[in-house]
Design goal:
AB_hydrolase_fold (chains A, B), 9-stranded mixed beta sheet, alpha/beta, S-formylglutathione hydrolase (chains A, B), Rossmann fold, homodimer, 23% strand
Chain lengths: 292, 292
């Protein structure tokens, strides 16, 4: 698993580097990611915040459009931007739809044999990327990880965080999301993804990959969750996101606004213009826990 | 010249709107631009800052990747992002090269008959866009205009500003640029553009479209110029930008660092990662003059 540097850009006193490596989790395919190291990484290990992007995106969208790098540089936090799926698996039909297959990995491990060799973004993000960073000797303190994401990536961030808390692993100190798919077993995007990637379909997803179902099982574990969504978001209006379901489940098991904060932002939509507006807020939220 | 709204995104408490209209300056072709209005535009006219993008770009690059909207919202300044050339003129060869024709209008008015009907980005930016904004009743105070840009757009911003000062028009209160093409009659990009668009070629460009030549004629007019370029910029290293020539010409005629400030930024490149790093700086620079 050796890392190849594809490009490097100085930004906000730090450096954004695009890497490529042969990903075992993704069946031996090449995988790219962007890593932003703030200037203070030159003098010691820094905490890391993972950003999971949404449908159709790559490792570039968040890095280019999120307005995250400035606040991360200010806080002294690294940012890691993975891709959103394997690329070039050669599976029949994987490039037919924008909301399934390439660009739409849903941050799960596929169990449908057709996809199980390559579509393992869960392992890629939670295990493989931290390992490859550590083995490359990059100046990251892996005891200080947090995660955030947008839309499908918000779903990924919430489910990876909650699963890790449920398992008692506590891989991530905090999670945040912009317009997350919050109850995917109840929305068209989620049903399609789970129906395709998982042998057991939506039923198999319920206990593992649905943030609303996951938080409904909790109540005692301390949580640090921030969610923003816009009331002008067409996908929200179409019932793809369902943040109210997540909020209700959280309140029903006793989480208050300090532990699970869900903010409705008047008139904002699903775009990176929305994300960038609240990007600094999210970075500072995570910094509270990453630097504690 | 009626304006059609193509899309609208709430951002940083304000609104980014993409407009389309039939552009007389561009020979009747459809032209797009993005306009960001900060929240305070709801209660009165606001100053406006034009951003001219570089080769291959559209009206979207600066809006999406520049990290300009947040600082502009904070300062209460509107941002206007024009396209970089006419689109679809149907002139033979206009789509063959990335540095000439479509996406590469160079902010001039063509005199070569082949291009003269459509390639008039100078008139489009300096006259047509302000007019259409005024006639649409948008809440912009056109007595408070400034301009900035990147690369080819830095060339555009500098030459439009200096020409207006030389003519005594003072359309723009201040100018800034990221990695501008500063002496285009001396670099390959400029020679190619002027050779193609202008009947008199590079000779015709010297007095009108070369920032270094323009400033060399001045010395008495008060100027407000800020330029940033990166020492890791490959186009700088290849001699396409030549900011030192501009700086020397400015100093030779007596402009000091207060009036003409050219900053060399160690290790930065030509990308939007560089631009976004210093984006807030440039917005605040212009705010000093726009709000004076």
């Amino acid at each position: 698993m050796s890392l190849q540097k594809l490009s490097s850009n100085k930004a906000f006193g730090g450096e954004l580097v695009k890497y490529k490596f042969k990903s075992a989790a993704l069946g031996g395919l090449d995988a790219n990611f962007n890593l932003f190291l703030p200037a203070n990484a030159a003098s010691g290990k820094v905490p890391i915040l993972f950003y999971l992007s949404g449908l159709t995106c790559t490792e570039d969208n968040g890095a280019q459009k999120g307005s995250f790098l400035g606040p991360a540089a200010q806080e002294g936090i690294a940012l890691l931007f993975p891709d959103t799926s394997p690329r070039g698996a050669g599976i029949e039909g994987e490039d037919d739809d924008w909301d399934f297959g390439t660009g739409a990995g849903f941050y799960l491990n596929a169990t449908n044999p057709k996809y199980a060799k390559h579509y393992n973004m869960l392992t890629h993000v939670t295990l493989e990327l931290p390992e490859i960073i550590a083995s490359a000797g990059l100046p990251i303190d892996l005891t200080r990880q947090s995660i955030f994401g947008h839309s499908m990536g918000g779903h990924g961030a919430l489910t990876l965080y909650l699963s890790s808390v449920l398992k008692g692993v506590k891989q991530y100190r905090s999670v945040s999301a912009f317009s997350p798919i919050s109850n995917p077993t109840q929305c068209p995007w989620g049903k399609k993804a789970f129906g395709g990637y998982l042998q057991g379909g939506v039923d198999e997803a319920r206990d593992k990959y649905d943030a609303t179902e996951l938080i409904a099982k909790m109540g005692k574990e301390p949580l640090h969750i921030l969610i923003d969504y816009g009331t002008g978001d067409n996908f929200y209006k179409q019932g793809q996101l369902l943040p109210e379901n997540f909020l209700k489940a959280a309140r029903d098991v006793g989480y208050d606004e300090v532990q699970v904060r869900v903010r409705s932002q008047e008139g904002y939509d699903h775009s990176y213009y929305f994300i960038s507006t609240f990007g600094a807020d999210h970075i500072h939220f995570h910094a509270n826990f990453l630097k504690a």
